[in-house]
Design a protein that fits this description.
The structure is a single chain. The chain is α/β, with parallel strands linked by helices. It is 32% helix and 26% strand. It has 13 helices and 21 strands. β20 and β21 form a beta hairpin. α1 packs parallel to α8, α3 packs antiparallel against α4 and α3 runs parallel beside α6. The N and C termini lie far apart (72 Å). The structure holds flavin-adenine dinucleotide. Flavin-adenine dinucleotide binds next to α1, β2, α2, α3 and β3. Belongs to the class-I pyridine nucleotide-disulfide oxidoreductase family.
Length: 476
């Protein structure tokens, strides 16, 4: 079998991999991308976890369930009456699958447009060659590729609790949680991180009784304390039951459902019986099938590929990006690393600023932040000023009928440079972009305070929070 030669071969077609491949092709490299994800018909489904069982399908279900929640509880405030409201779960899932497919097809189109050669199958290192690497592709047809540069972007997998494998019927990973065929009466969620809260919210809005069990004593410990407190209050009001500081004991998965034995924060023995249990306790880097040993690619004790600040591995011309390396497991972080690596291969100065990576939790209210939290600044002993503005005092939020939460700015006490922006409330995921731009340009709170923002818009809350840093809000 003749081998095919490429300047760059990318293993993994998630956001890290497919974006790296497109950027490498844009820069003039003869590029291939290998991805093994299969759709229901066994065909290619590039886009990785993000497109297939992560960001995209979860947001599709969050949107459907939010419509249901609005119709169920809030339409009447607008004078809209609805009788016999119902939810057709199979139809909702079919819509979600269509959204996923549109994204898969979009990536295949982008590969064609950018002349990236796509190979559907598992890519693994065969051997190092003079001036490159031989990569085997095991798919419908076996292929051998020769690459001068290899970018590994093989992503991550959901972590199971020891001794409690995912059966995706009763005990669900993110994959199964996106496919539940009907609204469970009782749903348990272990882990109150982003995925647990988002998936718990979907099924709670549709009528499930949801209990979230969290081992940590603090709710959303990585989030600014004030924001986490506000979000906790809102989720509890919606009916999400959140138990903190628990110790999970035996989990019995039987035909009728799952029983979780646990010790509560006060040391009391408790038991939770649910129809379905989502386990969202984190994700582990994935190098299964990569045959890293064949070339001596170094992994750390967590199984992540060891890279330096530039995403270089221990091997010459082998790079790794995204969830399979250190750093936040976020699609946009993977993408930025993919672009930066392609540019470094081209001799350019690819750059990822870890200090300005935004974080978003797509619950209702949404939570979004960039930069440092107030507790981090206190721990560092940094002198700072804080200013916040509630959506309750924002005209657009009142017109929307969603006034939960606030925007909060943290700025250096002396220079006024923005150090962190934290938002809990409507459209926080979109509003945070302004703060990211501001921080990337090293703006001061005063810069934002002096910029004209459209009225009425939620973004006025951002301007007002910046004004609040100097104690001169105009509308509160
Ligand atoms: P992945 O997306 O995991 O892609 C890796 C790809 O490589 C996969 O297609 C895999 O099949 C393929 N692969 C692996 N090994 C091989 C091999 N040997 N040969 C060929 N192919 C291989 N992040 C956000 O930023 N925003 C969100 O809203 C968000 N929501 C999420 C919701 C859920 C439920 C989950 C689970 C995750 C979410 N994430 C979100 C995280 C996001 O999905 C990941 O950070 C992102 O997908 C990582 O991209 P990646 O390219 O590193 O890996």
């Amino acid at each position: 079998m003749a081998s095919k030669s490429f300047d760059v071969v990318v293993i993994g077609g998630g956001p890290g991999g497919y974006i790296a491949a497109i950027r490498a092709a844009q820069l003039g490299f003869n590029t291939a991308c290998i991805d093994e994800w299969q759709n229901a018909k066994g065909g290619p489904a590039p886009g990785g976890t993000c497109t297939n069982v992560g960001c995209i399908p979860s947001k599709a279900l969050l949107q459907s369930s939010e419509h249901f929640e609005q119709a169920n509880h809030h339409f009447k405030d607008h004078g809209i009456g609805l009788d016999n409201l119902s939810i057709d779960v199979p139809k909702m899932l079919a819509r979600k699958d269509l959204v996923v497919k549109q994204n898969n097809d979009g990536i295949l189109y982008l590969f064609k447009k950018n002349k990236v050669s796509f190979f559907h199958g598992r890519g693994s290192f065969a051997k190092a060659t003079e001036g490159g690497y031989e990569i085997s592709v095991a798919g419908k047809e076996a292929e051998t590729l020769v690459a001068k540069h290899v970018i590994v972007a093989t992503g991550s997998n959901a972590r199971a609790l020891p001794g409690v494998p995912f059966d995706e019927v009763n005990v669900l990973s993110n994959d199964g949680a996106l496919k539940v065929g009907g609204v469970p009466k009782k749903l348990g969620v272990i882990g109150s991180g982003v995925i647990g809260l988002e998936m718990g919210s979907v099924w709670r809005r549709l009528g499930a009784e949801v209990t979230v069990l969290e081992a940590l004593p603090t709710f959303l410990a990585a989030v600014d304390e004030q924001v986490a407190k506000e979000a906790h209050k809102a989720f509890t009001k919606q009916g999400l039951k959140i138990e903190l500081g628990v110790k999970i004991g035996e989990i019995k998965n039987e035909a009728g459902g799952v029983t979780v034995a646990y010790t509560d924060a006060k040391g009391g023995a408790q038991s939770l019986a649910v129809d379905k249990l989502i386990v969202s306790i984190g994700r582990t880097p994935n190098t299964i099938g990569l045959n890293a040993e064949a070339v001596g690619l170094k992994l750390d004790e967590r199984g992540a590929i060891v890279v330096d600040g530039d995403c270089k591995t221990n091997l010459p011309n082998v790079w790794a990006v995204g969830d399979v390396v250190r750093g936040p497991m976020l699609a946009h972080k993977a993408e930025e690393e993919g672009v930066a690596v392609a540019e470094r291969i081209a001799g350019q100065h690819g750059h990822v600023n870890f200090n300005t990576i935004p974080w978003v939790i797509y619950t209702s209210p949404e939570i979004a932040w960039v930069g440092q939290t107030e507790q981090q600044l206190k721990a560092e002993g940094r002198a700072y000023k804080a200013g916040s503005f509630p959506f309750m005092a924002n005209g657009r939020a009142r017109a929307l009928g969603d006034t939960t939460g606030f925007v909060k700015f943290l700025a250096d006490a002396k220079t006024d440079e923005i150090l962190g922006v934290h938002i809990v409330g409507p459209m926080a995921s979109e509003l945070i972009a302004e703060a990211v731009v501001a921080m990337e340009f090293k703006a001061s709170a005063e810069d934002i305070a002096r910029i004209c923002h459209a009225h009425p818009s939620l973004s006025e809350a951002t301007k007002e929070a910046a004004l609040a840093v100097d104690k001169r809000t105009l509308n509160f």
